[in-house]
């Protein structure tokens, strides 16, 4: 048995893709079963003249097969109604609250990192001063010198890797939220709600 050309199946797939239809919706439009659409697309059944005639109004709106898909224009697509300003304003408020919260968290990590860096920079001198100050152990507190050295080392420890990871994730989330706020401002026609 000779294999049928797949060009007829491409028409159905192209139509479904172009118009955003699944097989069931296309079958409903044509008044046929979804199984028939599947069979035609897989090449088990041929595209009949009746089905092609029913598809013709849709086929006339398809771009040529070799033409690339149109580049979306800036702004909303034709036929999209104006957005609900209250919904956009509410989402912008939510973004603003999240921006503030995440910004505070980011600032706290940065502040802890700066403090740790200052301790690390001062550590050699502080360690030397502690060693000199406790060269002769205090009889009332003989462990003070070793305790102080350990305490200084802990102060100068860099932040753990999880804080560095959190810092990078927070920056990414902040950038995404700022982009969302800018897009919401564009959608609202430049009206700022915050």
UniProtKB/TrEMBL annotation:
HTH cro/C1-type domain sequence ranges: 12-55
InterPro entries: Cro/C1-type_HTH, Lambda_DNA-bd_dom_sf
Organism: Hymenobacter aquaticus
Domain of life (superkingdom): Bacteria
Pfam families (UniProt xref): HTH_3
Protein's name in the database: XRE family transcriptional regulator
Gene Ontology MF: a single term: DNA binding
């Amino acid at each position: 048995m000779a294999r049928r050309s797949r060009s007829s199946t491409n028409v159905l797939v192209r139509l479904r893709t172009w118009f955003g239809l699944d097989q069931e919706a296309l079958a409903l439009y044509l008044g046929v079963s979804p199984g028939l659409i599947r069979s035609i697309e897989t090449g088990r059944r041929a595209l009949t003249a009746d089905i092609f005639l029913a598809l013709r109004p849709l086929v006339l709106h398809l771009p040529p097969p070799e033409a690339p898909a149109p580049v979306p224009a800036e702004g909303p697509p034709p036929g999209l109604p104006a957005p609900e300003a209250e919904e956009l304003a509410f989402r912008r408020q939510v973004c603003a609250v999240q921006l503030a919260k995440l910004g505070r968290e980011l600032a706290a990590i940065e502040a802890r990192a700066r403090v740790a860096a200052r301790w690390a920079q001062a550590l050699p001198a502080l360690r030397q001063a502690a060693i000199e100050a406790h060269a002769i152990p205090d009889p009332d507190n003989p462990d003070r010198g070793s305790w102080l050295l350990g305490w200084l080392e802990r102060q100068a420890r860099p932040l753990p890797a999880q804080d560095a990871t959190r810092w990078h994730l927070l920056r990414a989330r902040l950038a995404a939220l700022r982009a969302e706020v800018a897009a919401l401002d564009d959608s609202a026609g430049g009206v700022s709600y915050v």
